[in-house]
Amino acid sequence: MNALLARHPRLAALLAGFLSATGFEPLKLWPVTIACFALLILLIERTPDRRAAFLRGWLFGVGHFTLGLNWIAHAFTYQDAMPHWFGYGAVVLLSLYLAVYPGLATLGAWWAGRRFAFIGPAFLLLFAGCWIASEYARATVFTGFAWNPLGVTLLPTGAAIAATLIGTYGLGALVLLAAGACLLAVRRQYRPAAAIAVPLVALALWGQFSPAPTTPAGAPLIRVVQPNIGQDEKYSAELEQAHFRTLATLSGKPRPAPRLIFWPEAAIPAYLDMEPEWRWRLADLMGPGDLLMTGATKVYFKDKGPYGTTELAGANNSLFVVTPDAQLAARYDKAHLVPYGEYLPMRSILQPIGLSRLVPGDVDFWPGPGPQSLTLPATLGRPALKMGVQICYEIIFSGQVVDRAHRPDFLFNPSNDAWFGSWGPVQHLAQARLRALEEGLPIIRATPTGVSVIVDARGHVLHSLSSHRAGYLDSRLPPPLPATLFARLGNWAPFAFLLILLGTALALRRGKS
């Protein structure tokens, strides 16, 4: 191993990064992730200069993201505007960019370590703080791409419960600290290793044995529908009626007790605010007091000429709440859109050279105003509820999913993971579970092909439908927990943890001087 590190440090960094991504879903080999980050720490400690410090972190990131984001290539097989093989190139190109952030973390830790003499445990704390800053930057710069934050690998261990205090970006620092503790133990520096490891083990035990909130017997009834409609047939006009019959059948017959019925993102090809006949079709599926939440499109038109003709100007990816009398009780418009998926940046340049967005359509989606709590009216003994909505990709952005001034009772995450291959949907679910932990809120996910789930406010999956299976989930709505520390502070919480790490590193450095 030492020979590989000495002779081929760049290759070692690339391979370690590639293997580190096995800690994410579906493999969940989190000990491998920790070992690979211990190797990265060792590589940075032995780095001779700033250029090498950045390059080793960047190569580690290239390997890390190339494996972890392999599902993106699968999305290109569902459109014909661009060659399907381009999906593999897109994974590599995206990884080359995203790897800049681990590179900046390793550069920052190396530079500050050399400049201010942070060594040993102090360097580990410094590196963990730099990782928090780099992951936050990755999630925000150029609209951000927060997929697979490092902390999500802690979900199987129970230590992810720390997200209630320090958020997802703080969890990433805990992975670095675990890796550092392993490295210190190998070097027989048992005291500092134990000082790091004991709190991490305590967190894992807290998470494993923390009781799940009990759902009251009188909680609202819910039904989550998964129609198993694949991406290759989703937009087929010939199958439109068959798809609706599937959704209708799985929604079940009206019951005496009112229900909340949840359908996936873009479940129906209708403009509900403009097509009352579609609203009545949905209303016919409901009993008194029922509400149906479904994804659909809101469109906007503009005048085209002097004769009153119009053309499509833009659209919202929306969630509508439909009542039994065919009214629209509320609407949420997706705010955090997917670049190249729902809109094409620099369209005037890219479209003429043959590039397109992955979602079918001739115009771009427009963003909504951001997190909102929609009020679901009280009916037939069911209390009024506040529902937060995050459509598909939005749920991955830590600290950006809840209207904190109007805290909801639960979050609904309608999604379409049908084009994400086998790795994407389970990774998406893992990140949704982190949002439940952070905010102390239950989450309901409805997807066309899976994984549809009901998650409690501790991030536990209570009920689920596996991929590529038509079905439904019947349950009662899990209760929320009191607002967590993270729910009150948002991403100020991981930044406070960053300051604690740096302050402790500084104290250790002074203690050695």
Describe the protein in words.
By secondary structure, the protein is an alpha/beta fold. The protein folds into 2 domains: 1-211 and 490-511, no CATH class; 221-480, 4-Layer Sandwich (Nitrilase/N-carbamoyl-D-aminoacid amidohydrolase), CATH 3.60.110. The chain is 42% helix and 15% strand. The chain has 16 helices and 12 strands. It has helices at residues 2-7, 9-20, 30-45, 50-68, 72-75, 86-98, 100-116, 121-138, 163-186, 190-209, 240-251, 276-283, 347-350, 423-439, 485-489, 492-512, and strands at residues 221-226, 259-262, 291-303, 310-322, 328-333, 373-376, 385-389, 410-414, 443-446, 452-455, 461-465, 471-476. The strands form 2 sheets. The protein has a 6-stranded mixed beta sheet. The mean pLDDT is 91.
Helix and strand topology:
Layout: H1 2-7, H2 9-20, H3 30-45, H4 50-68, H5 72-75, H6 86-98, H7 100-116, H8 121-138, H9 163-186, H10 190-209, E1 221-226, H11 240-251, E2 259-262, H12 276-283, E3 291-303, E4 310-322, E5 328-333, H13 347-350, E6 373-376, E7 385-389, E8 410-414, H14 423-439, E9 443-446, E10 452-455, E11 461-465, E12 471-476, H15 485-489, H16 492-512
Parallel strand pairs: 1-2, 2-3, 7-8, 8-9
Antiparallel strand pairs: 1-12, 3-4, 4-5, 6-7, 9-10, 10-11
Helix pairs in contact: 2-3, 2-4, 3-9, 4-6, 4-7, 7-8, 8-9, 8-16, 9-10, 9-14, 9-16
